[in-house]
Automatic annotation (TrEMBL):
Cited InterPro entries: AAA+_ATPase, ABC_transporter-like_ATP-bd, ABC_transporter-like_CS, ABC_transpr_LolD-like, MacB-like_ATP-bd, P-loop_NTPase
CDD domains in the record: ABC_MJ0796_LolCDE_FtsE
Gene of this entry: macB
A Pfam entry, by short name: ABC_tran
MF terms in GO: ATP binding; ATP hydrolysis activity; transmembrane transporter activity
GO CC terms in record: membrane protein complex; plasma membrane
UniProt keyword annotations, A-Z: ATP-binding, Nucleotide-binding, Transport
Domain ABC transporter: 7-237
Name used for this protein in its record: Macrolide export ATP-binding/permease protein MacB
Organism ancestry: Bacteria, Bacillati, Actinomycetota, Actinomycetes, Micromonosporales
Lineage top rank: taxon: Bacteria
Organism of origin: Actinoplanes nipponensis
């Protein structure tokens, strides 16, 4: 028996209201993130990728359609229930890191565990282990402004992973990194995926997208193409 899907979005839309003007950022998107999936989302700037990621991560709610995360319809959840579902299920890596600037790497990573009610000692131990995992055992007590961009990105990934999520959502995880650092961040995401964590990433980089098991292409708030990536050999049907 295969595991139930991690996230199912059915005909979801998201319209922002801004100064009396409606901005339809998503206009009816259906997408299933399977357990253990590895999915890349590509598309032009403004096509709705980040808006979709925020919905998939339970950071925002759709204005239309149905969104089920970890088997739960988000429309039925109160804000605290939603926060709890997010904390238990999802790791989110923002393009701009969103780290606390006056706080050490270790305490940044430990933060999601505060909401779990885990004691300080245990939090520090788990955060330390996760920083070791992303290769930052020697940077535990550095603050973000004392670290390189790639190091900060890895702290953000460690923070997303410290709670043991089943889905990791990463918006442009390699966007601000040089090629070598980007490759090592990607290798880290792929090793997590090999352990069964579903990975969804947004990227503008074709090579990054092609490493995923499947890609979806967005345009003007819609999915215009969804295909497995080169999974078929020559002569096989695409
Ligand atoms: N909070 C907001 N209020 C109003 N409009 C918004 C808001 N956030 C995004 N939008 C609009 O919604 C559309 C989709 O934005 P989104 O951030 O999802 O695009 P994106 O595909 O992630 O683009 P990029 O590649 O530049 O990050 C854009 O037209 C954007 O201007
Ligand atoms: Mg974006």
């Amino acid at each position: 028996m295969s595991a139930p899907p991690a996230i199912v979005a059915t005909n979801v839309s998201r319209t922002y209201e801004l100064d009396g003007v409606s901005v339809p950022a998503l206009r009816g998107v259906s997408l299933t993130v399977a357990a253990g999936d590895y999915l890349a989302i590509v598309g032009a700037s403004g096509s709705g990728k980040s808006t979709l990621m925020h919905l998939l991560g339970g950071l925002d709610r759709p204005t239309g359609g149905t969104l089920v995360i970890g088997g739960r319809d988000v429309a039925t959840l109160s804000p605290p229930e939603m926060a709890r579902l997010r904390n238990e299920t999802i790791g989110f890596v923002f393009q701009s890191f969103h780290l606390l600037t006056r706080t050490t790497a270790r305490d940044n990573v430990a933060l999601p565990l505060v909401y779990r009610g885990i004691g300080r000692r245990e939090r520090r131990a788990r955060a330390g282990a996760m920083l070791e995992r992303v290769g930052l055992g020697h940077r535990m007590d550095h603050r973000p402004n004392q670290m390189s961009g790639g190091e900060q990105q890895r702290v953000a990934i460690a923070r997303a992973l410290v709670t043991g999520p089943s889905v990791l959502l990463a918006d442009e995880p390699t966007g601000n990194l040089d090629t070598t650092t980007g490759q090592s961040v990607l290798a880290l995401l792929e090793s997590l995926n090999a352990e069964g964590v579903a990975v969804v990433l947004v990227t503008h980089d074709r090579e990054v997208a092609e490493r995923a098991h499947r890609q979806i292409v967005m345009r003007d708030g819609l999915i215009v193409d969804a295909a497995p990536v080169a999974a078929t050999g020559p002569g096989e049907p695409a």
